Amino acid sequence: MSALKFLWSIGMLSFDLVTVGHFSIDFIRTKRDLISKPSLGGPPTFVSLAAKRLKAKVSVISNVGEDFPEDYVRWLMNEDIDLSMLRRIKGASTTSYELIYDEMGRRQLILKSRAPPITPSLIPESLSAKVAHISPIAGEVSYEVIDKLRENASLLSLDPQGLLRRFNEEGRVSLGKLEDQRVLRIIDIFKASEEEIKIAMGNLKVDDAIGILCKMGVDIVIVTRGGRGVTLSFNGRIYEVPAAKPRIVVDTTGAGDVFIGAFLAEYIRGKEPLWCSCVGSASASFVIEEPGPRGLRSSSEIYERAECIYEKVSTRKSA
């Protein structure tokens, strides 16, 4: 019998954090690697694991194909990630990317396969979440899904990466403007990379893009800048949160997802957004020290590093 059960539980499905988007089978290749081996990726993996390290109760809404390994399923279940809303689609393939990193750490994405989209019917009426983090990676989440989640979650967080991606015939990824901006009026938290927020909002400067998002009703805007840290906006102010210095950089895949998973785990406990960002930055700095999600540390180690980051934050008024 499969280790993966696809039946919703009877009664209320209650979670701290639900990640909505596809798992990915990633083939990661650097300049040192002649052959890339498959590894488990996608926001449901990294967001959930980061939040779980901080004692959050987590689940996912996602589709996978028949090729999704049972070893992945067992590992996720052993990590106490709820899979009751995960669907294996007969005859379909799991979303898969090849990730090619150059010597400067720049990444090129190539889409190899794509799982069927997530639809509103996949969201149980009995679902209740403190926060739903919507993070598509290949256009699998629609406005209708996000609007439906508004009924099931107290807070909505969006990483728009998969809504910006365009694919050529070879699957190579480029970024384009966020076409359906209705989603921006129903979310509470927006998180994107520096490149993504500029392009999503029509090639604007970061501060200008943040200003528009705030006017549209987004409470918290987070811009990740890799080794330069994070820009955070809330309550009319902008904060520059420095990146923690890792011991070594081995694999940056999933760092942004780890950041937001840790951020949200703290935020739903009533912590201030600035502290949540420091915890997110600390968590991300650990995960890049080892391949995949294995670099995640204990909550005590994360909080210790977060305190060091907190002391170095700078602030200014929004434009």
Q: Output the CATH class name.
A: Alpha Beta
What gyration radius follows from the Cα positions, in whole Å? 18 Å
Task: Quickly give the CATH architecture.
Answer: 3-Layer(aba) Sandwich
Query: Percent of residues in beta strands?
Result: 25-35%
- Contiguous low-pLDDT stretches (5 residues minimum) are 1-10
How helical, in percent, are the residues? Answer: 25-40%
Mean pLDDT: 91
Largest sheet: 10 strands, mixed
Description:
The protein has 319 residues and is an alpha/beta fold. The protein has a single domain (14-317), classed as UDP-N-acetylmuramoyl-L-alanine:D-glutamate ligase (3-Layer(aba) Sandwich), CATH 3.40.1190.20. Helices cover 28% and strands 27% of the residues. The chain is built from 9 helices and 16 strands. It has a 10-stranded mixed beta sheet, sandwiched between helices. Helix 8 (273-287) crosses helix 9. The protein is globular, with a radius of gyration of 18 Å. Mean pLDDT is 91; it is low at 1-10.
